Amino acid sequence: MANAPEQQQHHKSVRSMTSVAxxxxxxxxxxxxxxxxxxxxxxxxxxxxxxxxxxxxxxxHDAAVAFLAKVARVSVSDPATEALREQVDALLRERGxxx
Length: 99
Ligand SMILES: [Zn+2]
Hints:
By secondary structure, this protein is mostly helical. The chain has one domain. Helices cover 60% and strands 0% of the residues. Helix 3 packs across helix 4 (55-71). The structure holds zinc ion. Zinc ion (ZN) binds at residues 24, 27, 50, 54, 56-57. Zinc ion is lined by residues 24, 27, 50, 54, 56-57.
């Protein structure tokens, strides 16, 4: 668990449903899990909150959603889909927050 502290941390609410501050990097790293509904409720709320407020992450989010909508029409368990997904992920990282 990499809990990168950002600004002031409110330690009392970390475990609750309340969203906590997450960084752009955290958001991008968890974006696929978020979209797959694999994150715990607190983290899901945190990512959602960040995406709504951060234009950069919102662009990533929208691109990922559009991508998922596309692959949803293809076989989900296709290994080619996995590879494609990694490519898109890499592309998003390149465009986004690595500089
Ligand atoms: Zn962001």
